[in-house]
Amino acid sequence: MRLQRKGRKKRPFYHIVVADARSPRDGRFIERLGSYNPMTKPATIEIDRDKAYEWLMNGAQPTDTVRAILRFKGVYYKKHLMRGVKKGAMSAEEAEKKYQDWLEAKEAKVAARFEKSAEEQRQFNAAVSGTPPPKAEAIAEVAEEAPAAEAAGEEE
Asked: Where do the structural domains in the chain lie, given as residue ranges?
């Protein structure tokens, strides 16, 4: 299991593939499992978890980067849970429930990260949109008016 580089110069995009170790990096492969785009913030990863799990159980050896992606997407967690089922530590239903709970929590974290980066992008766009920031004199006037209004409210 490895990454197959696509995209143009300095704009990489990768396919996650299962390939024979003897084939070239971008050459022949057995099966395409998903894609990885490191250029987005945060990086976009789409992968068929079930196929990846099956290949892992059949003995496929992932590269370091693909191993990190599989760990992030929960394929290794599923492998860990299924090993517990095989040893009799839990039932298959319990393992599936734990896996689904983990996936939901992970998806919520990723969605929050996407929202945070989108908000940062909106703030950046607003900052560079061409509207000037408030002048220092206007800020000073507003700051002087606020304590005066509070003092008037306290006297009543």
From this structure: 1-66, 76-131
| Beta bridge partner(s), residue 13 | 6
Question: How far from chain centre, in Å, is Cα 6?
Answer: 20
Nearest to 99 by CA among 120, 72, 81: 81
pTM of the model: 0.73
d(CA 7, CA 43): 15
> In angstroms, rounded to a whole number, what is the distance separating the alpha carbons of residues 54 and 39?
28
pLDDT tens, residue by residue, 32-43: 999 999 998 888
Dihedral, 15, 117, 8, 34 alpha carbons, nearest 10:
10
Q: What architecture is the 1-66 domain classified under in CATH?
A: 2-Layer Sandwich (3.30)
Does residue 149 carry a pLDDT above 60?
Answer: no
CA distance 40 to 111: 14
Mean pLDDT of 93-119: 91
